[in-house]
């Protein structure tokens, strides 16, 4: 059970505090409600660019990492299509100093032409290394625009076109910062060996005078506070075949699924586990071990807050015909859509999920991240109750969701073939 208290400052900053006296550490986790979906289609990649710029320094702190190292701490960040998350883990006696660092960054970065050019170069090089020159690196550059035609999930966090980042002006990035990096668009969690009363007082002192943007006040959860172009129902199969210098042919099958608020979200997650989570799962047993068609196969959900994707990805063994491989996957999808799953098979998957969920909250840093995430979803109490949602899923739910999803007319298929 994760205990916590929640507070909202007058400038709109949401604050969550969690005490854990069993650790000498504390984590300051700051989630900004800005991801790739919030970008201008002509200026994509900015959320990820800012993940880099935020470590570039301010007038008071020219080198962020040096200060963190001086506290014997560690820090990092990540960007998703939905939000950007920053965190510092330090010995608990340095919590106020870590909070001051984050408040200093929120007040304003040292955004100048030199700093921008440095990070533009870093992000461009990352694009070339991870997406252009990495085997299978451009998979999602191909899949997203095939699966999404209107929603901004149609581009990766790196951007739809790297030129959007490389050609960005200083005024472009300043506008982006002013719009999204503000207290009323953020969730701050401090977790670990803290005193909540003292920590809240420090937060009010350090963050309280940062002005609200006035742009993000909403009664809705941050995850659902903005409207985005919505996809029309997919009514025909989409296919793409590409050839790349990779060791094995690969196959990707994507199906539209519900958003994070839907009760069916957990059912989709359970279906993915039934299909490929562990050696006894269906796809592994039938297609990897028994028929030896694939070297690996996975079923998973993309997990965004908005309309997501259910994905089956696989890599063929040498000499296996990809058309046969696809046919065999369809047979397994049809089976889970037409035959009721056994209660014990379902219970095994749910038990495994619950164990994984509990283990994922072992560290205070993990709890800080989870508290921010569930607060962002507008369901912070689910940080303690999420497994209960999974236990409510029935075999009938599995068959209903699978039968309504696994249809050729709703599938986007990518054949990623090895160049001869």
What integer is the average pLDDT?
96
- The largest sheet has its strands arranged as 1-2-6-3-5-4
Number of helical elements: 15
Distance between the termini: 55 Å
Shape: globular
Helix content: 40-55%
Task: List SSEs in N-to-C order.
Answer: EEEHHEEHHHHHEHEEHHEEHHHHHE
User: Strand count, sense and closure of the main sheet?
Assistant: 6 strands, mixed
- As a percent range, the share of strand residues is 15-25%
Q: How many β-strand stretches?
A: 11
Based on helices, strands and strand pairing, what is the structural class? Answer: alpha+beta
Question: Which parts are unreliable, with pLDDT below 50 for 5 consecutive residues or more?
Answer: none
Radius of gyration over C-alpha positions, nearest whole angstrom: 23 Å
Summarize the structure in words.
With about 425 residues, this protein is of the alpha+beta class. The protein is built from 15 helices and eleven strands. Strands 1-2-6-3-5-4 form a six-stranded mixed sheet, with helices on both faces. Strands 7-11-8-10-9 form a five-stranded mixed sheet, sandwiched between helices. Strand 1 and strand 2 form a beta hairpin. Helix 1 crosses helix 4, helix 9 crosses helix 15 and helix 11 crosses helix 15. The relative contact order is 0.16.
């Amino acid at each position: 059970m994760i205990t916590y208290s929640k507070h909202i400052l007058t400038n709109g900053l949401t604050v969550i505090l969690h005490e854990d006296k069993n650790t000498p550490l504390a984590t300051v986790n700051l989630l900004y409600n800005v991801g790739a979906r919030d970008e201008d289609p002509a200026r994509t990649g900015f959320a990820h660019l800012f993940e880099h710029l935020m470590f570039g320094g301010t007038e008071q702190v020219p080198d962020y990492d040096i200060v963190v190292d001086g506290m014997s701490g560690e820090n990092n960040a990540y960007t998703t299509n939905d939000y950007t998350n920053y965190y510092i883990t330090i010995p608990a006696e340095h919590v106020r100093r870590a909070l001051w660092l984050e408040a200093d960054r929120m007040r304003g970065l040292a955004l100048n032409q030199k700093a921008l050019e440095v990070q533009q170069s870093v992000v461009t090089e990352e694009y070339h290394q991870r997406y252009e020159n990495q085997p299978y690196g451009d998979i999602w550059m191909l899949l997203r625009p095939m699966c999404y035609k209107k929603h901004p999930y149609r581009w990766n966090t790196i951007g739809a076109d790297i030129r959007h980042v490389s050609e960005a002006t200083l005024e472009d990035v300043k506008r982006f910062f002013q719009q999204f990096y503000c207290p009323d668009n953020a969730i701050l969690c401090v977790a670990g060996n803290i005193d909540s009363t003292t920590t809240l007082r420090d937060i009010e002192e350090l963050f309280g005078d940062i002005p609200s943007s006035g742009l993000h006040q909403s009664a809705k959860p941050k995850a659902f506070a903005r409207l985005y172009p919505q996809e029309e129902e997919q009514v025909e199969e989409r296919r793409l075949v590409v050839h790349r210098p990779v060791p094995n042919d690969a196959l990707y099958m994507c199906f539209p699924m519900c958003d994070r608020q839907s009760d069916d979200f957990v059912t989709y997650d359970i279906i993915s586990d039934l299909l490929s989570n562990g050696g006894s799962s269906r796809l592994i047993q039938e297609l990897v071990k028994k028929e030896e068609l694939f070297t690996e196969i996975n079923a998973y959900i993309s997990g965004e807050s908005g309309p997501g994707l259910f994905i089956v990805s696989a890599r063929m063994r040498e000499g296996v015909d990809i058309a046969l491989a696809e046919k065999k996957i369809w047979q397994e999808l049809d089976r889970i859509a037409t035959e009721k799953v056994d209660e014990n098979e379902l219970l095994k998957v749910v038990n495994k999920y619950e164990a994984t969920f509990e283990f994922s909250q072992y560290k205070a840093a993990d709890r800080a991240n989870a508290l921010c995430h569930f607060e962002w979803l507008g369901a912070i109490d689910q940080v303690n109750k999420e497994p209960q949602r999974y236990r409510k899923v029935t075999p009938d739910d599995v068959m209903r969701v699978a039968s309504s999803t696994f249809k050729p007319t709703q599938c986007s298929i990518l054949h990623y073939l090895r160049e001869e």
